[in-house]
Design brief:
Elements: H1 13-33, H2 39-50, H3 56-63, H4 67-79, E1 83-88, E2 91-96, H5 98-122, H6 124-141
Antiparallel strand pairs: 1-2
Helix pairs in contact: 1-5, 2-4, 2-5, 3-4, 5-6
């Protein structure tokens, strides 16, 4: 792509990835917002709903977030009665409450709406290819 004055940082991965993240996050927050959640909380709940009794360190790995961020997200969802923490010895496990389980379908429908929005703009094949490339890059750079 030829850069112009209007997009002089177009060949910069930092600039491009941040711009993409802002746009995708805006879409996600709009769709998940319809059910009263920010995207980070929605992905946390989907993770705990799927892996009942998961440890925070595992959530950190799955969501590619710092442990302190995961701890903060969990605390917020415990406070809103979406999650429960149980400690056994030195280990902490996170469980979904009935409230979280009941919202699972709504969360997944919101996630599908996010996908539909960006796939409509980017194309289905391109969306999958881009997600694959970005994920692989994230893994290599972590």
């Amino acid at each position: 792509m030829n850069c112009t004055k209007e997009n002089s940082f177009c060949n910069c991965l930092i600039y491009a990835s941040n711009a993409l993240a802002r746009n995708i996050t805006k879409m996600a927050d709009e769709e998940f917002g319809k059910i009263g959640l920010a995207s980070s909380y929605a992905f946390l709940l989907m993770t705990v709903n799927k892996y009942n009794g998961i440890q925070p360190s595992e959530i950190s790995q799955i969501m590619m977030l710092a442990p302190s961020t995961v701890t903060r997200l969990i605390a917020k969802m415990v406070g809103q009665n979406f999650l429960e923490r149980m400690t056994e010895g030195k280990n902490t496990f996170v469980y979904p409450t009935e409230k979280s389980k009941e919202m699972d379908i709504e969360i997944k429908l919101a996630w599908k709406r996010v996908y539909d929005r960006y796939a409509e703009n980017l194309g289905i094949s391109e969306s999958g290819h881009l997600a694959d490339m970005v994920y692989k890059a994230a893994i290599k750079l972590s």
